[in-house]
Amino acid sequence: MKIQMIIVVIFLTMYVITHKKFDYYLPEHYVPLLVGAVNKDKIDGYLSDDERDNISAKNKNYCELTGLYWIWKHSSESIVGLSHYRRYFSGNPMGFFGEVIETMVFGKLKPLSVSKLNKCLENYDWILPTPEKNYFKKRSVRQQFQASHDIRDLETTREILGELYPEYLPEFDEVMDGHQLVICNMFYTHKEYMDEYSEWLFSILFEIEKNIDISDYDDYQSRLYGFLSERLFNVWIKHHKERFRIKYLSIFNTAKMNRSFIKNKIFK
Predict the structure, then answer these.
(1) Cα angle vertex 184, ends 183, 186, to 5°?
(2) Strand intervals (E) in 19-131
(3) Handedness of CA 133, 64, 253, 115 (dihedral sign)
(4) Disulfide: which of 42, 50, 122, 200 matches 38 by Cβ 3.0-4.6 Å?
(5) Please, which domain of life does this record's source organism belong to (predicted)?
(6) Whole-angstrom distance, CA of residue 190 vs CA of residue 198
(7) 144-195: per-residue pLDDT in tens?
(8) Rounded to 5 degrees, what angle do the CA atoms 184, 87, 57 make?
(9) How many alpha carbons lie under 13 Å from residue 124 in its C-beta half-sphere?
(10) Extents of the domains making up the chain
């Protein structure tokens, strides 16, 4: 009697969103993805978000989302993630304090390996950054947006959401009235979940884009759809809270987690 062995191959990639060439240690399966590439020279060894179906030309307004769109449309991996050239998951069990110690001992932090991220996915569906709370202690997410942007853009977003997906409005209001937010559009999850989210997200953003005039916005405010997407991601996750198991991990910024930066902060 023959015994057949079935080998299941899982393809996975952590895409590292960047707008320029950078030099930082990347573990295996971490792949740089150049965004806004339609207006830039290509970089050897980097993927580009302007190949085939893409929204690369919208990068000034969509930020890392032009990379997310490209991943959605073209990635064939079973498991995918999105991080930034300066921001990565650390997974240090001691959080920021542990990251400081690790940095002082080893000089710099290393992004969490894909093998460890996959280990998390054995018990969870999404790996996300730990929600930002300190920034929203004295004001809600809505109040913070109003202080930094044009509140009418958030109101338009709610109107569009109500037209396309009215069942999400309770979670939208809950997130906006809350005092914490998952930021940076970073994640690690199964591709099928990311596809579902991306279809939802871009259908909303493309409709919002038809209803908001940002021609007079400065460079910072022109990143509107990136700002809105951070808030919408929280809405989508909250709406599916009974369906998905979420693992929150700390993230670190390479510009801030190095010996010299920490020493200046501590001993200045």
Answers:
(1) 105
(2) 30-34, 47-48, 79-84, 87-89, 126-129
(3) positive
(4) 50
(5) Bacteria
(6) 12
(7) 999 999 999 999 999 999 999 999 999 999 999 999 999 999 999 999 999 9
(8) 60
(9) 18
(10) 12-267
